[in-house]
Amino acid sequence: MKSFLYHKKNKISRKVISKRVKEIQLLFFMKMEKKKLTIIILSIILAASGAWNIIFGVIGPIELTAPKGFTFVRAISGSPYSLDPVDSWDSISNSIINQVVERLWYYDWTDPNMSLINMLAASETWLNTTALEVHLRQDVLFHDLTPFNSQAVKWNIDRLLYLYNHTGELFGRPGFPHSLFEAPDGTPIISHYEVTGTYTGIIHLTQPFTSLMELMCYVSAGMISPSSHNATSFIDVATGDLVGTGPFIYDEYIAETEVRFTRFDKYWGGPFFRDTMKDMKVAYFTKMKFVVIEDPLARNYAMLTQSVDWIDGVLPDLIDTLRVDPDITLYESDINHLRYDGLEFNNKQINYTWRKAMAYAFNYTYTITEYFQDHVSRSYGPISPGFGEWYTANVKKVAPYLNLTIARQTIVDGIPEAAALPVNDNPHDAAWASVSLATFNYSYSMENLWPTDLYLLLNQWFGRIGITIIDGGTTKAYFLKQVSGYLPGGFNVLQIYWAGWGPDYLDPINMIQPLFSNQSNANSLQVNDPWLEDQFDTYLRENDHAVKVELIHNISIYLARDLIPEVYGIHNLLTACHKADLYGVPYGFLRYEFYAFPLKRNETYTWH
Known about the structure:
Layout: E1 2-3, H1 14-34, H2 42-49, H3 56-59, E2 71-76, H4 91-98, E3 105-107, E4 116-118, E5 121-128, E6 131-136, H5 150-163, E7 190-197, E8 200-205, H6 212-215, E9 248-254, E10 258-263, E11 287-292, H7 296-304, E12 310-311, H8 319-324, E13 328-336, E14 340-345, H9 352-361, H10 364-371, E15 376-378, H11 394-398, H12 404-414, H13 430-433, E16 438-445, H14 449-463, E17 467-474, H15 476-484, E18 496-501, H16 513-516, H17 530-541, H18 545-563, E19 566-579, E20 582-583, E21 600-601
Parallel strand pairs: 2-11, 2-12, 16-17, 16-18
Antiparallel strand pairs: 1-18, 3-4, 5-6, 6-8, 7-8, 9-10, 10-11, 12-19, 13-19, 14-18, 14-19, 15-19, 20-21
Helix pairs in contact: 9-12, 17-18
């Protein structure tokens, strides 16, 4: 899943951010000294004015009551794009759907390792390599009180196949995640679902696919009520309803403001059997709201002033402030996030010589230590160390690093016009500074802080090897169209851009195949490599776990050493920021998604 983190002000500098952070920190320490909760409605002011020249002292404090008791409030970074499981491919939409809709299998959010568990499927048996028999849980109800059974599973799988045009009958666009449910050659993975009893059935595949249960943990395989939804059209995000079997009922979405939920009191109890969950049959919170606060400073401030229970996206400059607040829990893990971010190249337009040279001219140390203040770690490829055994430390030995000598030698060897240029590591060499051997467009959203700042850095770093970078900054909406291939010319409109990718389901192939397969509609890098295609096909048909691990290791090394399709940038560390009175918190994150069911509030907590 491609993902991008946005900031609300065009081309805002890091100095401006630091100034605003200091203002917030000052207000925080004033709050700590007073020992009371003071809320200044910064998010409302920012949203209304779009301005940064706010004088906090002039506005003054307005006291509000923070949410307590049986209401949970989470601040999210943007609005949902979809309410329909089969059309959802962004983390905000997925997180909303997660609270309402359940799958046959899922991940144990109470386990930091996110182990695979049965959810609506009670058990399963592979009958052969293309047939999985499923026994369903009984006494499960949808929120409209329709019984969950094998007919409901068939209806949902038939709907998925239709809306992904795997039946060949769809008129119009397929759901966005359709490629997840397709083999590398575009063939649908699922053939059909056969009902064999009220609570039994068989998932038939078109070909062997050993990661089926992991795939069906993705939100697209979620079960929605046949009584409340249309089998042949998508749910409208603005006016539609969402009816599942999950712990929360979807109430409404107030455009660009908030999403509201109510507890489902006839919930079947959920799949978690750990000691901390045994006493929970329904959710603790009777009401829940996801409040849209796009601006990251306003979102962090909302946490500091206790106006929300949970925030997404902690600003590095505010980590120390959040960490020392006794009323806030800042969970920090040394485990790498499964997502990675990097500088992506259009491999069709930018050849190996230029890709390798830029990979050796990129300043990784500055990015990680200076800019992100060591709150991220270096990425050596799509497979994060957070993937455990699937990650190979050998990739570090072969991945590019900042070395101007290698970068310049690569260009001298591969570009005839550069043959007479000196090969050295002097960043101020006049001969290199005076030439322009290549010109590439750098696309980015001007509402995104790091990619905006990166434009100036790339001019400096790549200028040292004779590359001119053209400013392709644009609006968030237009940039999303560019990276989604929705503009005339498709992915050909891109040359260089910064983007992130996170797993849709916990199988490492999902971090590689969608990005680099010539059959994938997410292959914005336009990679077309026969060796990779063969490895993808082998992996998806392989049953031996050790062999699959070795395949991923080999692919990782090939990408870093031989293909260099992009500059691998950073992995974030797993973090969470919430009120200190919450417990039972699920820290086993999958990307930036969220699952509220295990949460409880300590009603005896003493506020400082």
